[in-house]
Amino acid sequence: MPPVSGSSSRALNAILPLVASGQPYEAHQKARTFASRYSKSGQYDTAIDVLFQSARELLKVGQQGSGTDLTLFLLEVYESKGEAVDDESRGRLTQLIALTGSSGSWRKTIIDRSISWSARHGDCPAGDQDLHHYIGELLYKDGAFDAAEPHFLASGKRDSARSLANMMIEWSAAGGALGNFALRGTLPYLQNGNIVGARTFISQFIAQVVSSRPKLISPLQSSPLPVTPTGEITHTTEPVLNFCQLAVLTCQRANGEKNKVMRESWVRLCGTYQSKGGVLATRETLQEIATLYFAIPPPRTQPDNPLGAMISSMLGGGMPGGGAPPRRMLSPAVSGPSAPGLD
User: Fold this and answer.
1) Which end of the chain is flanked by fewer CB atoms within 10 Å, N or C?
2) Stated pTM of the model
């Protein structure tokens, strides 16, 4: 039985022996009763300790339903107290998430509620970065790639970007175009204004690809090609991989409408690869990135020719016709070591 703190000792000394003696229902009920009493009297820290330790012990003996219920109650107390996201408050949740296990929907329920709490009481509107990263790693290790993907993207940390790249490589081994997996990491990071994440992801992705599949390296350029003092691309025989690398480097050097060279480079880059057809032939995401980094306004109607519309918008035109719905606008990521809010 774990040690108990002084303020919560009376409750836990009545609850935890019930778990150890095989009476989980009784332990669950007592935990709720004590925690409710403490919470209503404003003793939030005591209620939190009771709920955390009780949920942890119940989960250890396989009582997922009871453990999940107490974890959700814990999050309610977090909300009532206005508990801020820090190592301690996050650490309680990561322990409980890990103990819940992957069977059923219990873990997902806790994850969803935990992210919502962290979004309200932390620094990141999408949820705490460290919490997202932990969840992404946990799901990745369980082989739940589709569930891990949004957490790595929402985290935006360098470690998350590296893990996402490694996961995408593993995922691609099951089938599917390699370029599609590269786009699934590169473009969302760029959409979020996260140049560091996009650069880290595609660098790791390319390194893993050429290490395991050296034949993908283009015979026209067998060594990495320096493009900027700090950036290089590895020319491959897969056009989408080349596009992802060039897209990141181009966005990194963007400065809205002030850098006309980069604006024109972006349009040419998209035109070159869209003309090849395939997955890049029509991409609304590319227009969003054009607006975000290069101040190229979106067309007022959805065109049949995205490249033509992008050029028209860049020149100050825009497509005549009905209005398009308002689009999300992000502040462009700063070029340099790291953007605010990342690592």
Assistant:
1) N
2) 0.84
